[in-house]
Amino acid sequence: MRFGAAAPVDWLVVGLGNPGAAYAETPHNVGFEVLAELAARWELPRAKDKYAGRFTQGRAGIGGPRVGLLQPQTFMNESGRSAGPARGALKVELDHVLVLHDEIDLPFGEVRTRVGGGLAGHNGLKSLKAALGSPEFARVRIGVGRPDSTDPDVVAGYVLGRWRQPKGEVADLVRRAADAAEGLVLGPSAR
């Protein structure tokens, strides 16, 4: 799918998580937290219900690129149901879709960026690949660590449970992940 230059935004930034108070302040929702940090930094308007999610748009800072920030409300495993239609309506090229997500294969506090690659069993990423037609979108991988078990129920309890780390360390992780996302969106000239 190729889009022309008349796209309403230059970047679509998708924060992954689960809707509802029961999932707030959990490692699995760190993508939502980073998205909120970016919206505050860029002074974007309050998000509205759109594309089966919460959506806002504006500029990434003064004179920055036009951005759309999407928080799917479809639950993590069906994030593509929100991001796919948003990408189509906004006419965003795949290489300008940026996904913010938790990564249990990275130690808590580590933040890495990449374009494409494997999905590491992450159901939110699998849903996005299916809806976007490819895994070749940009990502900010936010290390939340993993429990000392490979049992799926233990892992689910870990990522869906409240943060075990101090609030200050979580806030620092969110800030650093937002810095990484901002660096991708604004490009090398912003550094």
Care to give the gist of this entry?
By secondary structure, the chain is α/β, with parallel strands linked by helices. The protein is built from five helices and seven strands; from the N terminus they run βαβββαββαβαα.
Overview of this protein structure:
The structure is a single chain. This protein is an alpha/beta fold. It has 5 helices and 7 strands; from the N terminus they run E-H-E-E-E-H-E-E-H-E-H-H. Strands 2-3-4-1-5-7-6 form a 7-stranded mixed sheet, sandwiched between helices. Strand 2 and strand 3 form a beta hairpin. Helix 1 packs across helix 5 and helix 2 packs parallel to helix 3. The protein is globular and about 50 Å long.
Strand content: 15-25%
User: What is the first-to-last residue Cα distance?
Assistant: 31 Å
Low-confidence stretches: none
Q: Could you say which structural class the secondary elements and strand pairing correspond to?
A: alpha/beta
N-to-C SSE string, H for helix and E for strand = EHEEEHEEHEHH
CATH topology: Rossmann fold
Question: Quick one: CATH superfamily?
Answer: Peptidyl-tRNA hydrolase
CATH C-level category: Alpha Beta
CATH structural architecture: 3-Layer(aba) Sandwich
Radius of gyration: 15 Å
**Helical stretch tally:** 5
- In total, the number of domains comes to 1
How are the strands ordered across the major sheet?
2-3-4-1-5-7-6
Number of extended strands: 7
| Shape field | globular
Q: What is the helical fraction, as a range of percent?
A: 25-40%
- Would you tell me the overall average pLDDT? 93
